[in-house]
Design goal:
Blueprint: E1 2-8, H1 12-19, H2 25-28, E2 32-38, E3 48-55, E4 58-70, E5 74-80, E6 86-96, E7 99-110, H3 112-116, H4 119-147
Antiparallel strand pairs: 1-7, 2-3, 3-4, 4-5, 5-6, 6-7
């Protein structure tokens, strides 16, 4: 399992606002070329988000389905990217003063990804997820500044 943590200098409500808009995932999820669609009830349990991921001409379409949703606290997705299988992506938001401690866990569930799972894959995923959390934090802080009067 690859686990990342990041203190985001915005409230859990502000961070949740970004997570609950499926069309914004392309702004911060590393490797996303574009969001193809988000169910109108995103992020309710069972809702799906479809994205195209990859680099250059090497792409695949991924569908993430919400498995657990506790608004402003927890969001767990099952990301399916054939032919690689599926992974669990768990996000937890913990109030930290007026800020948010954001935890992201990734773990393969099915398919070839479970056989490739190990230190090297976990390391690469951890680096990718660290870049994602940096982008998410930058967006959340930038938008917090625009909402907060000086």
């Amino acid at each position: 399992m690859a686990r990342n943590r990041r203190l985001i200098l915005s409230s859990p409500a502000e961070v949740w606002g970004l997570l609950s808009d499926g069309y914004r995932y392309g702004e911060w999820v590393t490797g996303t070329q574009r969001v193809l669609g988000a169910d109108p009830d995103w992020p309710e349990v069972g809702a799906a988000l479809k994205v195209r991921v990859g680099m250059g001409p090497l792409t695949l379409d991924d569908t993430s389905t919400v498995r657990i949703c506790e608004p402003q606290r927890r969001l767990e997705l099952e990301a399916k990217a054939d032919p690689f299988g599926a992974a669990r992506i768990a996000m937890r938001l913990t109030p930290w003063g007026e800020h948010t401690l954001f935890e992201l866990d990734w773990h393969p569930l099915r398919g070839p990804g479970t056989r490739m799972h190990g230190l090297l894959v976990d390391y690469l995923v951890k680096v990718r997820n660290g870049m994602m959390l940096t982008k998410l934090a930058e967006i959340a802080v930038r938008e917090h500044r625009h909402r907060t009067p000086a």
